[in-house]
Design a protein that fits this description.
16 helices; mainly alpha
Length: about 375
């Protein structure tokens, strides 16, 4: 299948932003308002109607997303159980929290109380990521994206063909999806929906947005004035969404903004505007003569899932080395480290760590690719 280079460039830029934010560059949090939506929109953009039926699409996505998700959760759970034994905070709740995190696709687990009390607290939505003390499996929190991507794809592929021909139905289905995604905000006493369903709903809306960009040929082969006008408008919407949505929080956090349903709609509008700006930028990059840079971006974009899946494990290793060797096992840092709440380190170390994490993940992608090629040859 012919690849869209600018889509790969966009995914490469966004995964780099994600890694830098996770490494400690909290000032870049607002980037996530468009970084995560772009991955959803890119899936919609590259979707081809009629290539496979709905059942085939869902089975294929389950194999490519959910099976790796369960395996990765098992891997990160083993890491956390090892850390629990090393740092002396492990008990039966570690295994229980692994189950909770696998089902909910995020790092939600309250420390206080027994297992039954913890379950009640989760169901009452009090174990909220924003409390800052409920992360007992911090290295797998980023994996919320995988079940959310799967549920989003199931919803998107189920409705995209139905609403393709009717303009009114397109608008209504997006509004409906965003409203459903708002349930977790409007009715916090319910519970966080499992398997990333809440984020999957708004993810499906972004997939529809990406599909329509391609379907209507909205971004390719346009005049310079068209790009200037649409990007100026998109920039206004993006900046406005930062304030209206949740006072400038990242995409995941702004999902729980202070203005209820308005926060979720602002997140969607701001995210869509950001996606448009990034795609426009990458269209420009495609026309530049910087062959090596484009080659690197293209390779990163093709292997973005490997980087996303493993970058926190590599970061965990670098953080451990930083504390044990550079900081001589500083106990104050060790306490935060075991909770996944590493403080921001020096600017130089954070840049080094983020860059090294991306490079090592890409090298791992290359090893996997060569192994697959060798397997096919044999």
């Amino acid at each position: 299948m012919e690849r869209n280079n600018y889509i790969d460039y966009a995914k490469a830029l966004c995964i780099a932003f994600v890694v830098f934010v996770h490494t400690g560059f909290s000032a870049l949090n607002n980037i996530l308002l468009f970084a995560m939506p772009l991955f959803f929109a890119a899936t919609g953009y590259t979707f081809t109607i009629g290539k496979r039926n709905l059942k085939q699409n869902i089975i294929l996505r389950f194999k490519s997303i959910m099976i790796p998700y369960f395996l990765l959760m098992l891997f990160y759970t083993l890491i956390e159980m090892l850390r629990a034994n090393l740092f002396g905070y492990g008990d039966a709740r570690v295994a229980y929290s692994a189950l909770v995190n696998t089902v909910y696709g995020s790092g939600i687990f309250p420390f206080d109380g027994g297992i039954f009390d913890s379950f009640k607290e989760i169901m009452s939505y009090k174990a909220h990521p924003l409390t800052g003390i409920d992360l007992i499996l911090p290295t797998n929190c980023h994996l919320w994206f995988l079940p959310a991507m799967f549920t989003a794809y199931v919803i998107f592929s189920s409705v995209v063909k139905i609403v393709r021909k009717n303009h009114l139905s397109k608008v209504l289905v997006v509004i409906f999806l965003v409203l459903l995604a708002s349930v977790e905000v409007v009715f916090p006493q319910a519970c966080q929906l499992p398997f990333g369903l809440g984020r999957g709903l708004i993810g499906a809306a972004f997939m529809l947005f990406g599909f329509w960009i391609k379907d209507y040929k909205l971004i390719e082969n346009k005049s310079g004035g068209y790009y200037i006008l649409t990007n100026a408008l998109s920039l206004i919407l993006f900046v406005g969404a930062l304030y209206i949505g949740s006072n400038g929080s990242a995409f995941v956090s702004s999902y729980y903004g202070p203005y209820g349903v308005l926060s979720v709609f602002a997140t969607f509008i701001g995210g869509a505007a950001g996606v448009w700006i990034v795609l426009s930028l990458c269209m420009i990059i495609e026309k530049l003569p910087t062959r090596q840079i484009k080659k690197l971006l293209s390779y990163t974009g093709r292997n973005v899932m490997t980087v996303y899946a493993w970058h926190m494990a590599v970061k965990f290793l670098f953080d451990a080395v930083y504390i044990c060797l550079i900081k001589a096992s500083d106990f104050s840092m060790l306490d935060e480290y075991k909770m996944g709440l590493m403080p921001e380190n020096s600017m130089g170390f954070m840049i080094f760590e983020a860059t090294a994490v991306i490079v090592l993940c890409l090298l791992w992608s290359k090893i996997i690719h060569k192994a697959r090629q060798l397997e096919k040859t044999n």
